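Problem statement: downstream parser choked on a complex file, so we are re-checking the raw output for the magnesium ion run. The parser issue turned out to be on our end (a line-ending mismatch), but while we're here, posting the original submission so the record is complete.
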Amino acid sequence: MISVRSLSKQYGSVRAVDGVSFDVEPGKVTGFLGPNGAGKSTTMRVVMGLDRPTSGTATIHGRRYVDLAAPLREVGALLDAGAMHPGRTGRAHLRIGARSNGIARSRVEEVIAEVGLGKAAGRRIKGYSLGMRQRLGIAAALLGDPPVLLFDEPVNGLDLDGVRWVRTLLRGFADEGRTVLVSSHLMSEMQLIADRVVIIGRGRLIADADIDQVLRGLGGQRVRVRTPRADALGQLLADRGVVERTAPGELEVTGLPASEIGDLAHARGVPVHHLAEVEQSLEHAYLSLTEDSVDYHGRPAEPIANGATR
Ligand SMILES: Nc1ncnc2c1ncn2[C@@H]1O[C@H](COP(=O)(O)OP(=O)(O)O)[C@@H](O)[C@H]1O
Ligand SMILES: [Mg+2]
């Protein structure tokens, strides 16, 4: 169990984390989501004792990282896959970690096999691809067979096989009863692997809920309509629901059932070429939740009449 309580971290004038509290429970994959610069990595570094909080606490099983006697046995983390000595071999990197934590050498070979590093373990890290570094980083996190695991953007730079592998691995850890916190800005990825999501934006907590709750609780059902008279239909619908123009001749409507949209269009003689409920996605939920907390984004969707966007 990881507990974050009223955590804040100030870097000069930047408040990277601002009064965040949440728990990460065992037996589940908890996704840690937020736009770039939201404060995910900072929070994870504080949990791992690599950064000192300005105020608040982050504990593992009730204790701060610095107070853990054999930290690798209690918590494993993949934070920055680049932070390894390039001149060492993967195996040497792992042996150093094992030795400093009183872990048997045989365990090094076990984790090398578990992450599929194989022959590459004997090569210098400077020749590793990003994917191989990620595998090595995960091997290091697993050395002490810890009950708590943190992964900061573990699928970054991985090919499709690598992504699938990480997904299966995280699911397996959670199913074994471990506590798994994994950050990502890839909503589609989170939707596939997380049971719970903690969402932050500009250092503040935006949501902390089961993924199903997040998907269900946001804005209601969306319906996509394609019509050659998008302006006319948009005007008609804007009084009744929230209308967004998603493409030329295409609208997305929230707050109105598809049947009502179809009936209304029919009654006013507006031809409809396509009418379907849109499957709720975490991506959409995330966008509506983080809209006000995104520092960098493209042009927002164009509002129609008096209907608000999104
Ligand atoms: N060591 C640091 N010194 C100064 N500012 C930092 C440092 N680390 C992070 N920040 C700032 O804190 C904010 C949060 O960053 P970070 O935790 O890396 O976000 P995320 O991982 O969600 O993208 C950003 O504005 C970032 O520029
Ligand atoms: Mg980060």
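For whoever reads this later: The domain at 2-210 is CATH 3.40.50.300 (Rossmann fold).
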